[in-house]
Amino acid sequence: MGAEEPPLSPPQSPLQPENHPKTPPSEAEEEQTAEYTWPVINYTLPPYRTYHFFNQFRKPTKPNNFLKGVKWSPDGSCFVSCSDDNALRIFTLPYDENGNLLSTCSFPEDTDSYDANVVINEGEPVYDYCWYSNMSVSNPDTCVFATTARDHPIHLWDAISGQLRCTYRAYDAMDEITAAFSVGFNPLGSKIFAGYNKSIRVFDVHRPGRDFQQHSTLQGNKEGQSGIISSIAFSPCHSGLLATGSYDQSTAIYTEDNMELLYVLHGQEGGVTHVQFSKDGNYLYTGGRKDPYILCWDIRKAVDIVYKLYRSTETTNQRIYFDVEPLGQHLGTGGQDGMVHIYSLQTGNWVTSFQAASDTVNGFAFHPYLPMAATSSGHRRFEGFNDSHEDSILGGDENCLSVWSMYPTAVDDGATNIS
């Protein structure tokens, strides 16, 4: 008899590329992650700008290269921006040899603080993008994020090299690729949930290609959600719930395991563009386009709106991102007035605001561990015949990206200070 053939190995997971050696986290990193909590912020003191970026978004071929949001990686090591030139730029926080963050005084004011580490160009306008839920720089295998763009499948990108890891493809009735309008990883990082027109498709992260499960958001009795599913969010308390926002001005709550529709929320004046759970998973916050209010819902009752948070978004179709701080006590949001407004989530009352840009602030995100936040700004401009060349020249506070440092009420050690 011949030698026994070895068993066939399973296909390699896109989260385990051969060119990235796996680096386990050190004991110090594991201990810090387990014990560290976000500091209590003194919002009576306005934050100060630590890093600023605008020159990288100035292009002769695209003078109004406005931004479309900014998102921190789950481990807080970097953040990704999206802009109208169909590019995603990844910026890693700069540390010195002693492990301290470099201060803003290290960079000239008339230039960018530093260059993006990675620039990824999509072929068409980007609809949505999100980080892998278990991303950690200590394990390069997990340093990936997903994007969806017009007429393209879902792309999974390597955040370190900028290379394409794999694609997840959905097809329509004509067997042509159809693009997702929203994407999100479930908390375990095993599935990609993608929003389409009146449907949600679920892909297995470890099985790229055209295999997926499809779930209609419109039930046989016409209940549910019609229109484009524009945003997806998962409950952070591992309750197995997810929320989806639709351009039909509704938000729906589903169970993750079988996509059972629990209830549909109505009350947004415009198409829902962003949804996010509270840190305890009991409340849901929703915002829409051409709608000046973020609505707070108690998903344990899901009958009435708890309160409304105002922001200046009455006349824009842009997706204006908001974010809940890691402590879960405050929410920050931008608007057309160039301001960032901070609200108390216990009372729904306004706490403070600060000027982040001289343009629409369309992105706001708290750092997951440090007392910092990131903002992005810009909007689509339609130049008329009477607009002069001087009026069309943008300054450093328009179409820009900024990182802000906040003041903790108490600092136990120097770990969170920017020296």
What does this 3D model show about the protein?
InterPro entries: SWT21/TCAB1_mRNA_Telomere, WD40/YVTN_repeat-like_dom_sf, WD40_repeat_dom_sf, WD40_rpt. It comes from Lithospermum erythrorhizon. This is Telomerase Cajal body protein 1. With 419 residues, the protein is mainly β. It is built from 2 helices and 28 strands. The strands form 7 sheets. A 4-stranded antiparallel beta sheet has the order 1-28-27-26, with no helix packed on it. The protein has a 4-stranded antiparallel beta sheet with strand order 2-3-4-5, with no helix packed on it. A hairpin with a 5-residue loop joins strand 2 and strand 3. The protein is globular. It starts with 26 loop residues before the first helix and ends in a 14-residue tail after the last strand. The N terminus and C terminus are likely disordered.
Entry summary:
3% of the residues lie in helices and 37% in strands.
In the sheet with the most strands, the strands line up as 1-28-27-26
Sheet with most strands: 4 strands, antiparallel
What is the gyration radius calculated from CA atoms?
A: 22 Å
| Helix content, binned percent | under 10%
- What is the number of strand segments? 28
Distance between the termini: 70 Å
Note poorly predicted spans.
Answer: 1-11, 25-34, 412-419
H/E order of the elements? HEEEEEEEEEEEEEEEEEEEEEEEEEEEHE
Give the mean pLDDT: 87
* 3D shape: globular
Structural class: mainly beta
Strand content: 35-45%
**What's the total helix number?**
2
Q: Could you outline the blueprint of secondary structure elements for this entry?
A:
Layout: H1 27-35, E1 48-53, E2 67-72, E3 78-83, E4 87-92, E5 118-121, E6 126-131, E7 144-149, E8 154-158, E9 164-168, E10 182-185, E11 191-196, E12 199-204, E13 213-216, E14 229-234, E15 241-246, E16 250-255, E17 261-266, E18 272-277, E19 283-288, E20 293-298, E21 305-310, E22 322-324, E23 330-333, E24 339-344, E25 350-355, E26 361-366, E27 372-377, H2 389-392, E28 401-405
Antiparallel strand pairs: 1-28, 2-3, 3-4, 4-5, 6-7, 7-8, 8-9, 10-11, 11-12, 12-13, 14-15, 15-16, 16-17, 18-19, 19-20, 20-21, 22-23, 23-24, 24-25, 26-27, 27-28
Region (Disordered): 1-33
Protein name: Telomerase Cajal body protein 1
